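Researcher: I'd like a candidate sequence for this fold, 262 residues long. If you have to choose between options at a position, lean toward the conservative one.
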């Protein structure tokens, strides 16, 4: 069965290095492996996800930058197939065109654009840490916001600001948005600060994913090799954690079983 409505998951934290791109890639891959049709969209002007999946210098007209052009058509921006999911790459043009995108209405283009890819069950949007028309547009388009957060002071601070941004966007532009979920990443059982910030987040917010992503070298290795952790090292803790996180997110989104299961 094809899901009647495409879900859009936006990965966001106003602090860099907290595992957003790693999570987009591996949660996307995990959900793709479960049989769903998955599209990843890179909205980070620095294009880490794009380079990771081996797209060197995408044509701006065929990248996510084209979402903001009046001549945007689905035909022009066709996703690149990767193993188990498709990708719409980022272009450097995202950086130069940002100066022109200053009207409130410019926050709506991501939503308008991703709506045309309705053959997918799930679209994951990767964003940069900065608060820009791209990260706000990604929140406007979202049905679920996931905030990857390492349990340390600065990432938690950035995570709480991202939570607030989502709340403001819900009030103004996206009333259907549910409370964002925090995803603890790069956790290390030996670090006492990690226990402290984990307790803080779990006691203060009801929406913290049960599954945590532990620090695992296989994740960094896969990232550097331009592969998902499932391809690189399917027995690693990183692969286990992301497979479990993918399952938990499927539950939260209430995705219908994919065709292969019926
Ligand atoms: N659970 C993890 N264990 C080990 N390394 C990780 C883990 N998650 C992310 N990393 C590494 O941390 C760095 C930052 O991750 P990234 O996903 O690019 O963060 P962001 O997109 O939030 O800036 C990358 O080098 C990545 O390989
Ligand atoms: Mg990133």
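Model: Candidate sequence:
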């Amino acid at each position: 069965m094809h899901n009647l409505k495409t879900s859009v998951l936006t990965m966001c934290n106003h602090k860099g290095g907290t595992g957003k791109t790693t999570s987009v890639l591996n949660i996307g891959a995990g959900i793709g492996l479960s049989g769903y049709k998955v599209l990843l969209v890179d909205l980070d002007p620095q294009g880490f996800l794009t380079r990771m999946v081996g797209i060197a210098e995408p044509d701006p007209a065929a990248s996510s930058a084209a979402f903001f052009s009046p001549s945007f058509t689905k035909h022009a921006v066709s996703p690149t197939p990767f193993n188990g999911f498709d990708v719409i790459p980022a272009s450097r043009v995202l950086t130069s065109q940002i100066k022109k995108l200053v009207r409130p209405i410019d926050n709506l283009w991501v939503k308008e654009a991703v709506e045309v890819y309705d053959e997918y069950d799930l679209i994951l949007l990767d964003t940069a840490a900065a608060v820009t028309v791209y990260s706000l547009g990604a929140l406007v388009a979202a049905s679920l916001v996931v905030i990857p957060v390492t349990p340390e002071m600065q990432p938690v601070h950035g995570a709480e600001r991202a939570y607030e941004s989502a709340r403001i966007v819900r009030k103004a532009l996206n009333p259907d948005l549910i409370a964002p979920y925090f995803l603890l990443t790069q956790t290390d059982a030996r670090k006492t600060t990690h226990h402290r910030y984990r307790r803080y987040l779990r006691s203060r917010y009801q929406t913290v994913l049960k599954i945590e992503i532990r620090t695992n070298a296989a994740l960094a290795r896969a990232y550097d090799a331009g592969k998902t952790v499932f391809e690189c090292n399917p027995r690693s803790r990183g692969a286990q954690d992301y497979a479990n996180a993918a399952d938990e997110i499927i539950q939260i989104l209430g995705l219908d079983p994919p065709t292969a299961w019926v």
